[in-house]
Amino acid sequence: MSGSGTGRGPRRRSPVDAPAAIGRCRWGEARLGSATSPTVGGHPVWEPSTRLRRRVTATTVPQRDGHDLTVLAPDAPVGLVVLFDGERWLEHGIHDAWKRAAVPRAVVLVPSGSLDRRRALLPHPEVVAAHVADEVLPAVEPALLDLPRIVAGQSYGGLAAAAIAMLRPDVARTAIVQSGSFHFRADEPPRRPRGVVGDLGAVLGARARSGAASRLVLQAGIGEADMLDLAERFAPIAGDVGAAVTLEAYDGGHDMDWWRHGLFDALDQLDAR
What we know:
Layout: E1 12-18, E2 56-61, E3 69-74, E4 80-84, H1 86-91, H2 94-100, E5 106-110, H3 115-121, H4 125-136, E6 149-154, H5 156-167, E7 174-178, H6 199-205, E8 215-221, H7 227-240, E9 244-250, H8 256-271
Parallel strand pairs: 4-5, 4-6, 6-7, 7-8, 8-9
Antiparallel strand pairs: 1-9, 2-3, 3-5
């Protein structure tokens, strides 16, 4: 997970609904924004000139492993977001952005720690789902646990979010998946994301259609190596087992420059339906 997170952010390109309309995005027909989320350039929550809508209280919640959670909570929240790589989002100013969001939600910022810890946690569905279910959620105020939940992440965190929504809907049924590492295979060393969907796609491909539909908002950058292609390959796999899936491409690489805007675009998209 990288990127400076400065500037207004890359433009959004060609929204694609999945699985019915999944396919190669036609860049000649690209448009800025969409009917449900008409952002042009960057999301307004990152603009200092955008008014602060509400007070948001930040609370540090100690964890046994020393990687403390941060909870950002407005008064009377209507939803709960579990967001991976929480320390990076704090560095990029999400506290003020959260005050400008259109809908008052609480967010639990889940830290990843070192690269080794991140690799050991996020891309392994059973491990990360157990971490959220057994360590993260029990540490949150009980009142927040009754709210509708969204899990969100980028890269390995995006893969983790998709896996939780698809395999553990009891933890969170809706996921915002940015640049998901759908190529990951636990029995292989790290590799470039070229063409072949990894473990999560294989697990879902072997499953029967579920009656409890999950929802995935997929995003990928056209400037990152094959991540968009992998998202396009993964989307119909998830759709075939009952998930409601959308996919949208951004002018950007594998970085926070567009992830920070895309996160709030996705929340707006979810709120519009």
